[in-house]
Design goal:
By secondary structure, the protein is an all-alpha fold. Helices cover about 50% and strands about 0% of the residues.
Length: about 70
């Protein structure tokens, strides 16, 4: 994916990155997150989970409920 994602600071870029790999057929994905501290890392994970859920990433709540 290139440079680390910043889902809480640049949700649009993170969403586009996830969409790009999803469209290529990926289901699991590894990402690097930009974080200043442990608590910021948790914030980034939560933001990334929300973005994945909104995009209907396989295994997320919206995908399981057919909202994708």
């Amino acid at each position: 994916m290139g440079r680390p994602l910043d889902p809480s600071g640049d949700a649009d870029r993170a969403s586009k990155a996830l969409r790009k790999v999803s469209e290529a057929g990926a289901t699991p994905v590894s990402v690097s997150l930009a974080a200043e501290s442990a608590s910021h890392y948790v914030e980034q994970l939560e933001a990334l989970a929300g973005i994945a859920d909104l995009s209907g990433w396989p295994g997320t709540t919206s995908a399981r409920e057919g909202r994708a």
